[in-house]
Amino acid sequence: MERILVCITGASGSIYALRLLSALAVRGTLLHVTCSSWGARTLLEETGRPIGYWLGKIRANGGPGGTPALITMHASDNFSTPIASSSFKLSGTVILPCSMETIGSLASGSATNLIHQAGAIALQEGWPLIVVPRETPLSLISLRAMTALKEAGATILPACPNFSTSPSTIEDLVDSVVYRILDHLER
Questions:
Q1: Which domain, by its residues, includes 15?
Q2: Element of type H or E holding 34
Q3: How many domains does the chain have?
Q4: Integer Cα distance of 85 and 71 in angstroms
Q5: CATH, residue 30
Q6: What is the pTM (predicted TM-score) of this model?
């Protein structure tokens, strides 16, 4: 069974993470989720609901055919959770939205939380790591950090919606990015 870790940081754009989780749940993916404290705060500010609400909603009937989805939440400060070890094989790790602080930490090899640790393990093991920055403009420091991550094997997939499909809703725009992430997870 496919096991995907979705990491949510404090960058704006938590709707991307929620839509990705929903898309993966429908496919029957075993989901692991970790969210930084700033990620949880940003998600609450952007959606009006806490992450537990959204995970509960997806878990209740978001799986294949409306069955319960398989979701495990991990505290971002818990280094004793299975996903903090390379012995727990994942099919992929997605950091979305990914803050520049997280990109900088990953590029420097500094693991101060579970998101950083999971990203470092994905790079170490050669597992798919998709980093979805949502901030703009990009400084030279941020560009160099992203270059270092790309050279180390990460996929840098900025949250740039596709307008060529004539989207009619915000969800259509968000989903155009989610579909690109799903495509890269399948490679």
A1: 3-185
A2: strand 30-35
A3: 1
A4: 18
A5: 3.40.50.1950
A6: 0.97
